[in-house]
Design goal:
Layout lengths: L4 H8 L5 H19 L2 E13 L20 E13 L8 E9 L1 H6 L16 E12 L5 E9 L19 H4 L4 E12 L2 E8 L29 E9 L11 E11 L10 E13 L5 E14 L9 E11 L4 E13 L17 E13 L5 E12 L15 E12 L1
Antiparallel strand pairs: 1-2, 1-16, 2-3, 3-4, 4-5, 5-6, 6-7, 7-8, 8-9, 9-10, 10-11, 11-12, 12-13, 13-14, 14-15, 15-16
């Protein structure tokens, strides 16, 4: 090993030993090698929103919306991602950490070491994902995640820049968001893959428990200590031989377990099962893709009431890449919720006791990427109460329709 003149001089007078310097250089080299494969990325998500009419007593109950974002400028969330992806080796290892900062971090509800308000965090900080990634050389290789990871179902992502529209759908709203557990994924071939996992709870609180002996401020439930949440999914991709339909995808999954109080779709502790199926279809029209999704939430509260709170959401999507910078996106959806006075959408309490309530929604989005690394989009959303007046301005439940225009600007780094 070669040493510079300064190091040799210090060694000559006994200040350092060449052996210790060599060991330090070796350790530094290992650290530098590990860091060289680590990536840092993320985004800053901002918006400006105008809700038609005066007052915002009852806004449509989709995720990451609400009165707190109406009629003003918003910082939604800052995401910081630090990751080392799996390489192609048989025993590959890596990790991923997604950190959220800002108001949406409070809504996510995973919990925070800096917040004493478990399940209703107000620290503007959340761990969205934090897992160790491993591969075992079984067949084509099984990829594992152990820790906190995103849910395996859904057409839309918790990360707004990855979605065709700025606002979230009702399908996303009734899905789980994150889990703490173990997930394995196996790719049978290029066109077919499987995922299965086990987690503490339906989510989202990190380290939450379904049994009553959790302690430490964690949310807990009435189940046995062995009770866990289970999940599975399949994914299909159309091969290149399918011509214009190549790259089309179909997906289905199910998650069953005990829900803790932090969930967006939860009004109390209880067993929940989420069923999901969805597809994205390429078309003969260049730049045009269509999609569809179906979510069904079977939710049962615990205690004396033991009421079933089922809900389902149907979504239809269309995206058209008009030019290199301009793209157009549309979403139509229907939400049906049973017994809305006590069900998964408590804000619709004006029609408590009805068998079903329904909301129709249409969202249109124009995206134009004028600046490098920037997503800029303008969106119009219309929510319509089919059974009754669910929305309100200055008076609760006084409107059947809610209209909103939003501008969304995201910088990705």
């Amino acid at each position: 090993m070669k040493f510079n003149k300064w190091t040799l001089g210090l060694a000559a007078v006994g200040v350092v030993s060449l052996a210790s310097v060599a060991k330090a250089d070796e350790k530094l080299s290992v650290v530098q090698t590990a860091l060289s494969s680590t990536t840092i990325s993320g985004y800053v998500d901002t918006s400006a929103q105008w809700n038609f009419g005066t007052g915002n007593v009852d806004n449509p109950p989709y995720a990451y919306g609400g009165a707190g974002k109406a009629d003003g400028f918003n910082l939604n969330v800052v995401q910081l991602t630090i990751a080392k992806p799996l390489d192609e080796s048989e025993w590959a290892s890596g990790y991923k950490v997604d950190l959220w900062f800002g108001p949406d971090a409070n809504t996510l509800g995973t919990g925070s070491a800096f917040s004493g308000d478990v399940g209703n965090e107000n620290a503007d900080l959340a761990i969205k994902q934090a897992y160790v990634a491993l591969r075992t050389p079984v067949g084509n290789g099984i990829d594992w995640k152990i820790g906190v990871f995103d849910t395996i179902i859904g057409y839309e992502s918790s990360e707004s820049p990855n979605n065709p529209n700025f606002t979230r759908s009702y399908g996303y709203t009734i899905e789980p968001t994150t889990h703490t557990g173990l997930l394995g994924t196996y790719r049978v071939c290029e066109e077919f893959s499987l995922s299965a996992g086990v987690a503490n709870t339906f989510g989202p609180q990190i380290n939450g428990r379904a049994h009553p002996n959790a302690g430490g401020g964690l949310s807990s439930g009435p189940k046995a200590e062995s009770y866990k949440t289970y999940m599975a999914s399949i994914a299909l991709t159309a091969p290149q031989s399918w011509g214009w339909a190549a790259g089309s995808t179909a997906y289905a999954g199910v998650i069953n377990g005990f829900n803790d109080p932090g969930s967006l779709s939860n009004t109390g502790q209880g067993n929940q099962t989420s069923w999901y199926s969805g597809a994205t279809l390429a078309t003969p029209v260049t730049g045009l893709k269509c999609g569809a999704s179906f979510d069904y939430l079977d939710s049962h509260s615990t205690g004396a009431a033991a009421i079933g709170h089922d809900a389902y959401a149907i979504g239809a999507y269309a995206s058209y890449q008009a030019t290199e910078k301009l793209s157009l996106h549309a979403r139509g959806e229907l939400l049906t919720s049973q017994d809305p006075g006590t069900g998964v959408f408590a804000p619709l309490g004006a029609v408590a006791g009805k068998d079903n309530s329904q909301i129709w929604a249409f969202t249109g989005t124009v995206q134009y990427d004028l600046w490098q690394n920037v997503i800029s989009r303008l969106e119009f959303r219309w929510d319509h109460g089919d059974e009754a007046k669910y929305f309100g301005g200055t008076t609760p439940n006084s409107r059947k329709n809610a209209y909103m225009v939003a501008a969304n600007v995201v910088y990705k780094f």
